[in-house]
Write a structure and sequence with these properties.
By secondary structure, the protein is of the alpha/beta class. It contains seven helices and seven strands; from the N terminus they run ααβαβαβαβαβαββ. Strand 1 (about 40-45), helix 3 (about 50-60) and strand 2 (about 65-70) form a beta-alpha-beta unit.
Length: about 180
Amino acid sequence: MKDSSFLKEFLFRKTQVGAIAPSSKYLTKKMMTGLSLATAKVVVELGPGTGVFTEELLNLIGPKTQLLIIEINTRFYNDLKEKISDPRVTLINGSATDIEIYLKKMNVIEADFIISSIPLAVLPSSLRNRVILSASQALRKKGTFIQFQYTLQSQKLLEKVFSGVRIKHCLLNIPPAFIYTCTKE
């Protein structure tokens, strides 16, 4: 997808696209560092957009890891569908509030990791809460939820839902981002 198309999606679908440009390789690397993705059974990606994180996830997950990708934006979904032919991937055009339903269709109970690019700050608070709760419920005990945002607006919500929340910064992204790494006990 061209950058101008990404910008157009941002301008016309502000509750689905939270930035004017795709995430940088620096943000991608910082999001994935330290995750044992190669040994994971199930990884979920929420809101992949143009697939910047998806490409890296496909390089890092194991040969038997299942990757569930959920994208609500139809244009991004169709672009990803054309681009990805990996048998480890299940690509869904749907809502992140339904993670457990999609996992069940894959005959899976829970995920080891959930990587999210959903622009929580632009969502109505009730939808933001449902997305975070859905991620928490779909995550296995001791699982990890990684979410990047451009503000600290969701910090209190994440701290209420997850037992551990760490925050890192990535200045080499437009705009600079905060990375939340959240764990469940």
